[in-house]
Amino acid sequence: MDIRNLNLAYTYTTKDGSKIFELCHPANSKATNLSLAIAYIEAGSATKPHIHKKGEEIYYILDGKGKMYIDDKHSEVNPGDCVFIPPEAKHWIENNGKDRLVILCTSSPAYSHDDTELI
To answer: How confident is the model over 19-46, as pLDDT tens digits?
Structure first.
């Protein structure tokens, strides 16, 4: 059994600038093909435009609101929204609300700085 708690999660800043709490990743768990993290984007901030060469991601908005950009499209996102991001898609998210934007992020294969290319 492999149980992780947010209070003990490994914390770092990704290449795109988001603050990440890595809940489950091959580096810290029995997971081998994916990762799960909580990301925080402060009010008035945005991640840097980037792609993942191999990784596909899913963002699930837990709290706050923002604007999601994928390639040439954009949409408002709110709590309860789920966003699929395919490999090679240029993407970023901005917090256009007054409160912190909180996102549950999963990536397959697991997130890697080496798979992240800033645009």
So the answer is: 899 999 998 899 999 999 999 999 999 9
Q: Which residues contact 22 (CB under 8 A, 6 or more apart)?
A: 9, 10, 11, 12, 28, 35, 36, 37, 111
- Residue 6: strand, helix, or coil: helix
Is the pTM higher than 0.90? The answer reads yes
Q: What is the DSSP letter of 49?
A: P
Domain limits of the chain? 7-113
Token pair for residue 87?
């490999």
CATH number of 7-113: 2.60.120.10
